[in-house]
Amino acid sequence: MVSVLDRRRSIAPPGFNRWLVPPAALAVHLCIGQVYATSVYKNALVEHFGVGNTEIGVVFSIAIVMLGLSAAVAGTWVDRNGPRKAMATSALFWVTGFLVGALGIVTSQLWLLYLGYGVIGGIGLGIGYISPVSTLIKWFPDRPGLATGMAIMGFGGGALVASPLSSRLLGAYDDAYDPSVAGSVPSGQAVAMLFVTFAVVYALFMSFGAATVRVPPDGWRPDGFDPAAVRGRALVTTASISARNAIRTPQFWLLWVVLFCNVTAGIGILEQASPMIQDFFRGDGGTSTVAVAAAGGFVGLLSMANMAGRFVWSSTSDVIGRKPIYMVYLGVGLVAYLLLALFGQTSTALFVLLAAVILSFYGGGFATVPAYLRDLFGTFQVGAIHGRLLTAWSTAGVVGPLIVNGFLDAQGEPGSLTAAAYRPALLTMVGLLAVGFVANLLVRPVSERFHEPVAASAAGQPGQPGQQDEQQERSAS
To answer: Which of 345, 350, 358 shows the shortest CA–CA distance to 419?
Structure first.
């Protein structure tokens, strides 16, 4: 059974259509993208465990931390063993995380929720997130932004499915819960049953993705693709740089800062999305004009913006370049955050529009970064490099919610907050985006002393820094 998962069993036969690979990646990413829908039942967990926003927010933060750490540690393993084994492993951890988390809710043991959904599920998130990336880049060397956008769009769209489905299932599992009534909160038992349901459904879909994914044969390239044309673009290399050498370059750490700032800004809204829109439009009597069901719809809308941004903006980067598109993400995003902080409470439409723009840039940043890495470091170990870069996401997964939840807990109790309570956190995000904007401006091509020799990259082993890829340069010419 294990041999079926081997990389050699997933090599595509002659004539295989490369457009069949993105649906396999989407099947996995749509499932693990459920992590963006946690705000739908956040208040239920706060009430069930009798703790504050920060304690429940830690569950989400642990999951994101483990995502980055597992992606960094397993990146080289994923590149070596192929996407099929990685997707199957991801499914095992992700589904187990839901089941252990459900047990923690049923027994009122918060540490089990941390262990299950946070640690175990987070490992599944990390492996599943990077599993198709290097494969898609190899299938689409002519359009790497489009390729990674297609897959990672699914991660952003996971909440689009999970959010409304969660509301419906919670209502079915708890007769006293009505998502159309403001202030209605489902029971902890209903959330536990929701977790079990997700475990079953996601096991099926992720297994489909693992069974249908394929890797290209060695030396394959699409018809009409000319590597020499790619080499002529700014910041793009046809050389190979190992993951070991990549982390020694200033470019890697500049991109780390860029990703950290962009993610921290977006993740603060995502983790708090449902309560946030209710708090922004809370009347003098303490009752929000936004119902729970409408807030759940807002989460779904943000998921659509997140998903659309991953595809549209990353595809746009194939035309205008990675560096310019990140100037848009960070520069325009900075202005949008400032407007949200100062004027977001004046109009529901304005609030939703600004939040959607911010989340589209957040999603676009995730989808574009693998192509940015491919431009700077080549395809040799881009999956492993991507995994190491995702430690920025891990850090942001802690910092973002801590900034928002820390400010909110200092302002008052959940259910009584207003727009003013969010302003300090939102202005902090403005400053972070400014730092990321400057870091992106400093990105330059990677020095040739970090390039790998052709013999080492062809064998899948890193060589010594300072050896140049002269043979690859000649063949590209």
So the answer is: 345
Distance CA 355, CA 343 (A): 12
List Cα–Cα distances, 124 to 40, 61, 68, 88, 203, in angstroms: 21, 15, 11, 9, 12
Q: What does the longest C-alpha to C-alpha distance in the chain come to?
A: 73
Query: What six digits make up the tokens of 228?
Result: 């020499």
**CA 30 to each of CA 84, 148, 152, 296: distance values in angstroms, whole numbers, following the listed order:** 16, 14, 9, 18
Quick one: which of 1, 74, 28, 15 has its CA closest to 213? 28
In eight-state DSSP terms, residue 11 is B
Structure tokens belonging to residue 147:
């390729």
* pTM of model > 0.85: no
> Pick from 126, 429, 146, 465: which is nearest to 269 by CA?
429
With bands split at pLDDT 50, 70 and 90, how would you rate the model's confidence at 231? low
Phi, psi of 184 (to 5 degrees): -75, 130
Q: Is 187 within 8 Å of 46 (Cβ atoms)?
A: no
**Residues paired with 182 in a beta bridge:** none
pLDDT in tens, 402-449: 888 788 878 777 667 778 888 888 899 999 999 999 999 999 999 888
Extract the tokens encoding 303.
């998921």
Do the Cβ atoms of 252 and 246 come closer than 8 Å? yes
In this structure, which long-range contacts are made by residues 45-50, counting pairs with CB atoms below 8 Å and at least 24 apart in sequence?
Answer: 45/105, 45/113, 45/188, 45/191, 46/414, 47/185, 47/188, 48/105, 48/108, 48/187, 48/188, 48/191, 49/108, 49/110, 49/188
3-state per-residue secondary structure call for 157-171:
HHHHHHHHHHHHHHH
Alpha carbons 188 and 121: distance in angstroms, whole number: 19
Q: What is the pLDDT of residues 102-112, one digit of tens each?
A: 999 999 999 99
Interhelix angle 292-320/322-343, rounded to 10 degrees, is: 150
CA 251 to chain centre: 21
The DSSP output letter for 463 is -
